[in-house]
Write a structure and sequence with these properties.
The chain contains 13 helices and 17 strands. Helix 2 packs across helix 3, helix 2 packs antiparallel against helix 5 and helix 5 packs across helix 7. Strand 13, helix 7 and strand 14 form a beta-alpha-beta unit. With about 400 residues, it is of the alpha/beta class. It has a domain of about 220 residues: Rossmann fold (3-Layer(aba) Sandwich), CATH 3.40.50.1100. The strands form five sheets. The chain has a six-stranded mixed β-sheet, with helices on both faces. Strands 11-9-8-12 form a four-stranded parallel β-sheet, sandwiched between helices. It has a three-stranded antiparallel β-sheet with strand order 2-1-3, with no helix packed on it. Helices cover about 35% and strands about 15% of the residues.
């Protein structure tokens, strides 16, 4: 269904406004490194049409059409976990499979918010193949969306993460997969995908954090929360690999401020990582926007050691203008972390109290919520948003057949 959203682009470093002439990932007239951002014409959208799935937020998505099969994140007020932690206003935004709560993301990951936004952002005349590198969940989401909507897709995923490459129906022929070798990591997949994208006549890169559609798709989690609560949350918890989701959350907050109906405050970002892969935590604690480069061997070793492998990203958009460092500073936030043992306990506690299994990355965020409440760094009366970025996979697989995608 054709559905064109009106917007212009803004350079987050200079504020320059310019038209989107196509698949732009940067300001063509700016010589330094900066993210670009969509500025939407509709400042007070209506999010009430739940029949449109993710596209209930279409006024704040840079799309050309609405695709079939989307689902939106759902938000509800926690009782069991909130009571356990002594919190008055804990809201859980859940992306995954949980029919009783109205959550129907069949890949069980909030990466569907990215995939449905990005694929709807592709110009109608585009004939080339979309290239996506992923640590697992993103690839699964794109495989679903592209397979169901006949969009040519070439995926790059590390061999050790192939167990994440399942969908609920046999993939269409338009979806193909290339794997990097055993022992490789997400950055290796990105590097290999970049060699294919050198052939611009056949392929085009999805773009990662620089793609406005990716960030604005992720930002629908905050829109879901604000719509449910009636205001912008005070504190935001999420596990991150690149930090793109936290950047997106901050940008959604900015749009809600401009809207004016949801309050006039900025929510504090508390993103988290999985020990020992914590480059963002280390940079933040050193008080610098400079991210120390990580050698390939060290990155692969640390990636192998973490349970939340989707959080292992060697080159996140931390220092770039408008990136994670700026979002943390502007929100008064900070980085945190969880060990494998801590995330396991948090995940088990969430399932016991709330009644659904969650992904390891979501368990990292849950642990950092618990830790910060126990340490008194978060006010028990604050309005808290816990972004559960994936869950219900165990439940979904017990109720549905799944098909694993094998490398071509």
């Amino acid at each position: 269904m054709i559905r064109r959203t009106e917007y212009v682009l803004r350079n987050k470093a200079t504020g320059r406004l310019f038209e989107d002439t196509g698949w732009l990932l940067e300001d063509p007239l700016y010589g330094s490194d900066a993210l670009i951002q969509a500025v939407y014409k509709n400042k007070q959208p209506d999010f009430s049409n739940h029949k449109n799935g993710l596209y209930r937020f279409a006024d704040w998505l840079p799309i050309h059409r609405m695709l079939e099969g989307s689902a939106a994140p759902i938000t509800y007020k926690s009782q069991q976990l909130a009571d356990h932690l002594g919190l008055d206003h804990l809201y859980i935004t859940f992306s995954g499979y949980w029919p009783e709560r109205g959550a129907f993301m069949n890949t069980c990951s909030f990466k569907e918010t990215e995939a449905f936004s990005i694929c709807a952002h592709i110009p109608a005349h585009e004939k080339r193949t979309l290239v996506v590198a992923s640590a697992g969940n993103t690839a699964r989401a794109f495989a679903k969306v592209c397979s169901e909507n006949n969009i040519p897709l070439l995926l790059f995923v590390p061999y050790d993460n192939l167990d994440a490459l399942w969908i609920d129906r046999k993939p269409a022929d338009c979806v193909r997969l290339i794997s990097t070798p055993k022992g490789s990591d997400y950055f290796d997949a990105i590097a290999l995908s970049n060699t294919y994208c050198e052939d611009t006549s056949q392929y085009f890169a999805e773009g990662g954090a620089r793609n406005i559609a990716r960030r604005d798709g992720m930002g629908t989690t905050v829109l879901s929360a604000a719509d449910c609560i009636g205001r912008i949350p005070d504190v935001y918890f999420q596990a991150v690999g690149s930090g793109t989701g936290a950047i997106a959350a901050h940008e959604a907050n900015e749009r809600l401020l401009e809207d004016g109906r949801y309050g006039n405050h900025t929510m504090q970002l508390i993103p988290s990582q999985n020990v020992p892969f914590i480059p963002l935590v280390e940079a933040w604690e050193q008080g610098t926007r400079h991210l120390e480069p990580m050698e390939a061997a060290e990155a692969r070793e640390k990636t192998a050691a973490v349970k939340a492998k989707v959080l292992a990203n060697r080159k996140p958009p931390y220092a770039v203008a408008g990136g994670l460092y700026d979002a943390l500073v502007q929100s008064g936030g900070f980085m945190d972390y969880a060990t494998n043992r801590e995330l396991e306990r948090a995940g088990a506690l969430f399932e016991q109290l709330e009644g659904i299994d969650i992904h390891p990355a979501a368990a990292v965020a849950t642990h950092t919520l618990i830790k910060n409440v126990e340490q008194g760094r978060v006010d028990s009366k604050a309005v808290i948003m816990l972004n559960i970025t994936g869950g219900g996979e165990k439940r979904f697989k017990s109720e549905n057949p799944v098909y694993y995608i094998t490398p071509d």
